[in-house]
Amino acid sequence: MKLLGRVAIVTGGAKGIGKCVCQLFAEEGAAVVVADLDVETGQMAADELAANGHKAAFVKVDVTKEESVKGLVKAAVDTFGKLDIMIANAGIAETIPIHNLSLETWNRTIDVNLTGVFLTNKYAIEQMLFQGYGVIVNTASMLGHIGRNEVTSYTASKGGVANLTRTLGVTYASKGIRVNAVCPGYIDTDLIRNKSPEAKEELIRLHPIGRLGQPEEIAKAILFLASDDSSFVCGANLMVDGGFTAQ
Ligand SMILES: NC(=O)c1ccc[n+]([C@@H]2O[C@H](COP(=O)([O-])OP(=O)(O)OC[C@H]3O[C@@H](n4cnc5c(N)ncnc54)[C@H](O)[C@@H]3O)[C@@H](O)[C@H]2O)c1
Fold this sequence. Notes:
Its EC number is 1.1.1.47. GO terms for molecular function: glucose 1-dehydrogenase [NAD(P)+] activity. By secondary structure, the protein is of the alpha/beta class. The protein has a single domain (about 5-240), classed as NAD(P)-binding Rossmann-like Domain (Rossmann fold), CATH 3.40.50. It is built from eight helices and seven strands. The protein is globular. About 45% of the residues are buried. The site of nicotinamide-adenine-dinucleotide has 30 residues, from helix 1, helix 4 and helix 6.
């Protein structure tokens, strides 16, 4: 088992990619804190893990709120004694051209996707500096590295996550804390399920591999970055996108 005895927080852990990460980390021996704004789904995810004999707890968090994120890290440490791994994964998406994009929608995307990563990284690193070790994986996106028609605030927020990750990777590498990001292509989760069949076909065509990704495939990449298998990797943005950005 790659994470035996480790304690991990996964934000956005109630469903999609985050839920798969919680499941995989638990199977690899970690105690998992499922952290999400969605209480009902998040609690169910944690209960499911516990019912299968894993160490798991649900903590409600709004990653845009400082006190809420502080409380999340404290709850993990109070419950499981330490914090080895933070997966900053909660996110929302939008596809609106800038001339139609309200300031409210822009602010909401930046708040959840970028400020949320700032806050979760900040308070995880505070705890990890105290311990002298830790690993952080941020869920950025391939759309933090390329432009995409009408995906305005989302691409801006993920570009911020990609570069914040580089800076934190550089800043804390010598202090025993590794910070990296995973950059998924289009993944078959609720985030993109409201797209029309035509739009989905178009997305599939854009991936050289000829299909969308599955959340389990992103979870495996996150496990690599969170485990000792990636002990010499820091400040990296790992593309897991079926070749989308390689073309
Ligand atoms: N699905 C994709 O195609 C894709 C591609 C690239 C990157 N990503 C990124 O992967 C991450 C997970 O996406 P997903 O596809 O699993 O989405 P999802 O919608 O299935 O899950 C997102 C989770 O985040 C939670 N969340 C939203 N706002 C929150 C907040 N303020 N505080 C706490 N939790 C909050 C939601 O309740 C939900 O459980 C996101 O950061 C997303 O941008 C997804």
